[in-house]
Amino acid sequence: MSLSTQDVEKVARLARLAMTAPEIETARAQLSGIFDLIAEMQAVDTSGVEPMSHSQDLSQRLREDVVTEANQREAFQAIAPQVEAGLFLVPKVIE
Amino acid sequence: MFESSLKQLGDALRAKKISSVELTQLYLDRIATHNPELNAYVTLNPEMSLAQARTADERLAAGSAEALTGIPVAQKDIFCAKGWLTTCGSKMLHNFVSPYDAHVISQFNNAGAINLGKTNMDEFAMGSSNETSYYGAVKNPWDKTRVPGGSSGGTASAVAARLCAAATGTDTGGSIRQPAALCGISGLKPTYGVCSRYGMIAFASSLDQAGPMGRSAEDLALLLNTMAGFDERDSTSLQRDKEDYARDLNKPLNGLRIGLPKEFFAEGLGSDVAKAVEAAIAEYKKLGATVVDISLPNTRLSIPVYYVLAPAEASSNLSRFDGVRYGYRAPDYTDLADMYEQSRSQGFGAEVKRRIMIGTYVLSHGYYDAYYIQAQKIRRLIAQDFVEAYKHCDVIMGPTSPSTAFKLGEKGDDPVQMYLSDIYTIAVNLAGLPGMSIPCGFGENDMPVGLQIIGNYFDEARMLNVAHQYQLATDWHSRAPQL
A88, B201, B356, B383: which one has the fewest Cβ atoms less than 10 Å from its Cβ? Predict the structure, then answer.
């Protein structure tokens, strides 16, 4: 399968990855090779087969809707790139 | 001392022949000598290791020691350990000192084991050669121009070079078994759900599983006894009774039925690897086992299926790395979206970005059914192949990897070639089955060959029995590289 430059640019944008034009071109060639590998899957007849996500086919466990985690704000903020007054700082979003 | 089994070390510690502080210091000294060349460890913290050793010595003195109390164990750098730098092989987490312990780490801590250091790995566990680590490639101690395998390559190299008594790994598509094979050590990936994923940095959540890596099956059994167990903080953790994985080690193998899948001995398998594996099978026959020819017809589909499912789950898991709450933030950016994009582009390496791109594409609008759902359906067909096979055999055996360790840089430019080297291990993860690799000889260039043993669900004790009996009859597992 051959991906277009536009396909790769769109995927990079969705994945929040900034890429230069040469990087896009390299990615296009490599991803096309990988999708050739993946294409083998399309010919398989899977009608009537249920998708499998867990080998034991477990359903997700539910827990009581109560707070179980201790408050560790200081520990978590100590490793953050930028904090102020107990808040995580990011660039201004709303003018 | 460096050749002692975990049981021998535990006995020596309890008999006060050596203290945990002395043992830990011996290993730290050995690491200081050999790690600069091997690059197996990315983080050492002798103060914290020795503090744990002093506590272990108190416990030993008080007579409340367990099997692993006082024993130095290296931890793959994918496990969050409180107060330890935890990088997952990535620049993205170059400054991440974990504020909490992974479940596996707290299990070792509770057992009184010593965290000897964090081992190098492919970035976010994405790789089969350890060359994608931001902290540099790991060297194979058998030949320092060759790869140790991946992604748990630092662990495999450290165990083989006797830079720890034992260590942990994680396996999403073969990341315990393949490096174990390439470095001539033993490693076991348990049934999916046996070890908690809590605090283990996520790659592909429906496949990721932690497991022990060490020098013998007997050691692995002790390690798994500590690592396994239900944990409510992992929603896919299995609620099962506690079991002793060492309970069947000494059972004879009379009547054991070994399934040999024809797909594992077909084109693509190196003749040197085939020869060593066939010799191992012959040894098993001598031990009383019989051989059954079986087929896993969908094996070849496991690679395309894996390279849809794992990147899809990775692209979702790795969306959390945005430079806001922890990890790398780019120094310069224009606005919030640019901060995300610059931080992620600079913080992730090429292989990780490639997989995020694949995953984002297959999950994007209009492609979800054709890729992700189709892959999950074929995953069931792959799992059913094994269910069918286990009607005729007790364990399945074959090679772990199609070749011995390749040269550093040899497969660097072609991701597809690298992906194809995982052909024998991936189906086991897709099916959620337990799998292990043990050393079974040497191939070309005197590099180690691994025998893969695949068990039925929850059959870890039997697999360890099968591996241990072989290790009683042979000495491949006790061979050590000259450093």
Answer: A88
